[in-house]
Every structure is written in structure tokens, then in C-alpha cells.
Amino acid sequence: MVLDQLTPRKIVGELNKYIIGQDSAKKLVAIALRNRIRRLNLDEELKKEIIPKNILMMGPTGVGKTEIARRLAEIANAPFVKFEATRFTEVGYVGKNVESMIRELVDVSINLVRKEMISEVEKRAEKLVEERLIEIFVPGNKKNEQKAPFMEMLQMFGQNNPYINNENENNKVKDSDDINKRRAEIFEKLKNGELEEIEIEIELEEDSSPMFAGMGPEFEDMGIQLGEMFQNMMPKKKNKRRMKVSEARKVLLPIEAEKLIDKDKMIHEGIERAQNRGIIFLDEIDKITTRNGQGNGGEVSREGVQRDLLPIVEGTNIVTKYGPVKTDYILFIAAGAFHVAKPSDLIPELQGRFPVRVELEDLTEEDFLNILTKPQNAILKQYIELLKTDEVEIKFTDDGIKELAHIAFDLNQKIENIGARRLYTVVEKVLEEVSFEAPASTPWSLEIDSDYVKNKLGPVIDDENVREFIL
């Protein structure tokens, strides 16, 4: 879908395909995304003044916070990265630097642009792959090619030059004609797919192993960048590999496509997209508040992490291996359960940078029922298709689906509320035996009704100790 055509209603409609409920949250993120699209259509002077309205999502685990943010980025084809705020520590302590999330966003953005550019040159790259394959089957006479300029120079002195052996030249022409004929034959066979199972040897450049691995989290980013710098300086090692023609096509296509794309343009477009359309999802932000009910002890100051996050969320320049990147217009979506802490426990400056607040609701039993069947990626659809690959046809009856939803909802009340994630645990346990027995010697089918679900889960649910470990 074209970016300008993404109205808030259409964005919500797309989110509804994958996420059940949470209408308020969907509406707010749709408005936030549309405002970004509106900003891109303004003149340069006014565009500079409009900053994103960052979003703070509050709600228990498993209700769709991450999925909403991830699908939003997917709809807009925007660079997206997710981080747990607890991964960061304040400057000067062992831990991951907060600036690393910007570097990762830029990497994701450039890779996104790279894929788009590669798809544009794919047809040309396929032709180059054909040429490489033909060269493997019928190598050219490289020695003659190297001598060609010298022979041309001699011919300048006349056809009767004693240094020229006309007989040898005639033989070369014959050889050349023969090579061209054989190449044409190979081309036709490759085109018709006659050589796909033939094994050939191809030469590939080998990626050097990281030179600075294992430096520790506090030096992680520096190690990666130093490793890449030295890798670019060192000559590429070449390695020969044997594989079928069909496999060689897949290996060579991205290599040839990479040669055709404009690297400078790719990096420039990647940085621009990260700066103006990038989305960073900060999960577990409630766990870096200073009043989340845990003793400080020798722990690194949570407030220090907030203060390190603040300039990035406010807008600053971060140095990356591709150059400086502005964070002013990146959309930040923060999320947390906020069971103990409150948004007001964040430092005031950081609170002010998340003006859009939305509280996600607990999922009901009816929501669980819909999650099992309605989304495009519904849980039951996934399992049905997975087992179909092993010629096992499974069918869930209406009462069986209701029983699955009821048990998952009930377990969340009795053990711990982990939201929709409980459905995966329950369905996995119900299908454990079926998944183990497949594939069989002959295709078979199975109907899963409420009795089947109770039979598989009943003993586990009734035993409190087992229930807490298994489900």
C-alpha cells in the first residue's frame, strides 16, 4: 500500500487482521503514524518544527503491546527495532550503551533499503548469474584475451609482420567460434533447466570471523565497528565450494545484485528513512523507574538509565559507522506492565517526551476464542498448516476451541496472567502426542473436540504442582 493512502481507518483495518481487541491503542498508534505521513508532505521549514508524539503503552504482558508496534512498522514499511529497557545501564557501568539502539535501527533501515534495491536489479543480476554459470561450464581463453592488445600492436606494422603467425591466428578464430558455440548450447540448457542437478565448483569470497568478539557488553558496539573497519581493510579470502546449479543460482544472485546497486545511495536513503520513519519500541520501561518495589542494593541506578535515554528521545546526533544520525524525528513507543510502578515514577523530563498515553485492557475469554481463530496468523491455523505438511489433517470443533479458550483463561487467573501467550502453551500440550506421531506411513486425520482437550489437559490441570510447571 502506498504511504499516502494509509489513512488512520485503513491502518486500524490492517492491525485488525492480526490483533484482537485493544481498539483504543490501535486508534492512537494509527493517528501517530498518519501524523508522520502528514509531516513528510510539509515544506522543509515547517517539517523541522514538528516532532513525533511518542507513545506510552500500559498493560499486562501478552495483551498485544509489542505486536501493535511491530505490525505498525510493517504496515508503513518503516525500520523497526525492539529493546528491553532493562538491557541498558547508565554510562560508566557494565551493560549495553543506549546509543546502540540507534545504530541498530540504522543497520535495519539500510538493510531494508538494500532489499528493495536488490529486488529492482534482480532481472539484471539473473543474467549475470547465467554468465557466471556459463563461464564455469565453458571457461574463456583468458591467455589469449591477455595477449590481444600486444597482437593488435604488432598488426599495426602490417599483415606480413614476421612476428605474427597467421596459421596460429586462424586456429584461435576457430577455437573462439567453437567456444561461442558451446556457450550458446550451455545457455539454452540452463534456460530450459536441464542442468539444475549438475554439481559445479564456484569461488566465493569468505566473510572474516569477528576480530573483536567476546569483548564484553560494555565494548560491544566498539568491538563490532572496529571489527568491520579491519575487515574492510583486509583482503577478502576466496573459498571454493561444490554445489548443484540450482543451489549456485541462489548463492550467486544476491552477490551479483549487490554489485549492481549504488552503495552510497543505499546508505543515504537508509539513514534518511531511519531518521524520519524509524520506530523504536522500548519494552519494560516500568522496570527502570526508581519506585518499582525492588531494593536498590548495589544495582546500577535506574534513574541513570532514564537520564541516558532522555537526550536520545528528546533529539540528538548519534555517531554511527555511516556518519551522524539525528534522533529528533524517530518515533519512540514505550511499554510496560506498570503493576507496581506508575508512569509518574519516571523522571519528569522523560514523562514529558511520551505525551500519548494508552492503557491496554486485559484479555477476556471471548478475546482468547477470537485469537485462536480470527487473525490471519491465528494460532490454530498455524498448527493445522504445520501438521498438514506431514499429511496429518486436524480439525478443531467449535466446542473444542471454546474449551481451549476457557482453560487458557482459567489458568491465567489461577497461576499468573501471561495473556495470549498462555494459548500457545495450552495448544502445544494438547497437540503434543499428535506432533510426535507425525508423520505416519499413511495420511491420517483427527478431530479435536472438548472431550479430547479435557482428556489431554485434565490430569495436568487437576494437579496444582504439575500445572504450575507444565502449563
From TrEMBL:
<protein>
    <recommendedName>
        <fullName>ATP-dependent protease ATPase subunit HslU</fullName>
    </recommendedName>
</protein>
<keyword id="KW-0963">Cytoplasm</keyword>
<keyword id="KW-0143">Chaperone</keyword>
<dbReference type="GO" id="GO:0043335">
    <property type="term" value="P:protein unfolding"/>
</dbReference>
<feature type="domain" description="Clp ATPase C-terminal">
    <location>
        <begin position="363"/>
        <end position="459"/>
    </location>
</feature>
<keyword id="KW-0547">Nucleotide-binding</keyword>
<dbReference type="GO" id="GO:0005524">
    <property type="term" value="F:ATP binding"/>
</dbReference>
<feature type="binding site">
    <location>
        <begin position="62"/>
        <end position="67"/>
    </location>
    <ligand>
        <name>ATP</name>
    </ligand>
</feature>
<dbReference type="GO" id="GO:0036402">
    <property type="term" value="F:proteasome-activating activity"/>
</dbReference>
<dbReference type="InterPro" id="IPR027417">
    <property type="entry name" value="P-loop_NTPase"/>
</dbReference>
<keyword id="KW-0645">Protease</keyword>
<feature type="binding site">
    <location>
        <position position="421"/>
    </location>
    <ligand>
        <name>ATP</name>
    </ligand>
</feature>
<comment type="subunit">
    <text>A double ring-shaped homohexamer of HslV is capped on each side by a ring-shaped HslU homohexamer. The assembly of the HslU/HslV complex is dependent on binding of ATP.</text>
</comment>
<keyword id="KW-0067">ATP-binding</keyword>
<feature type="binding site">
    <location>
        <position position="20"/>
    </location>
    <ligand>
        <name>ATP</name>
    </ligand>
</feature>
<dbReference type="InterPro" id="IPR004491">
    <property type="entry name" value="HslU"/>
</dbReference>
<feature type="binding site">
    <location>
        <position position="283"/>
    </location>
    <ligand>
        <name>ATP</name>
    </ligand>
</feature>
<dbReference type="GO" id="GO:0009376">
    <property type="term" value="C:HslUV protease complex"/>
</dbReference>
<comment type="function">
    <text>ATPase subunit of a proteasome-like degradation complex; this subunit has chaperone activity. The binding of ATP and its subsequent hydrolysis by HslU are essential for unfolding of protein substrates subsequently hydrolyzed by HslV. HslU recognizes the N-terminal part of its protein substrates and unfolds these before they are guided to HslV for hydrolysis.</text>
</comment>
<dbReference type="Pfam" id="PF07724">
    <property type="entry name" value="AAA_2"/>
</dbReference>
<dbReference type="InterPro" id="IPR003959">
    <property type="entry name" value="ATPase_AAA_core"/>
</dbReference>
<dbReference type="GO" id="GO:0016887">
    <property type="term" value="F:ATP hydrolysis activity"/>
</dbReference>
<comment type="similarity">
    <text>Belongs to the ClpX chaperone family. HslU subfamily.</text>
</comment>
<dbReference type="InterPro" id="IPR050052">
    <property type="entry name" value="ATP-dep_Clp_protease_ClpX"/>
</dbReference>
<dbReference type="InterPro" id="IPR003593">
    <property type="entry name" value="AAA+_ATPase"/>
</dbReference>
<dbReference type="GO" id="GO:0008233">
    <property type="term" value="F:peptidase activity"/>
</dbReference>
<feature type="binding site">
    <location>
        <position position="349"/>
    </location>
    <ligand>
        <name>ATP</name>
    </ligand>
</feature>
<dbReference type="InterPro" id="IPR019489">
    <property type="entry name" value="Clp_ATPase_C"/>
</dbReference>
<keyword id="KW-0378">Hydrolase</keyword>
<feature type="domain" description="AAA+ ATPase">
    <location>
        <begin position="51"/>
        <end position="364"/>
    </location>
</feature>
<dbReference type="Pfam" id="PF00004">
    <property type="entry name" value="AAA"/>
</dbReference>
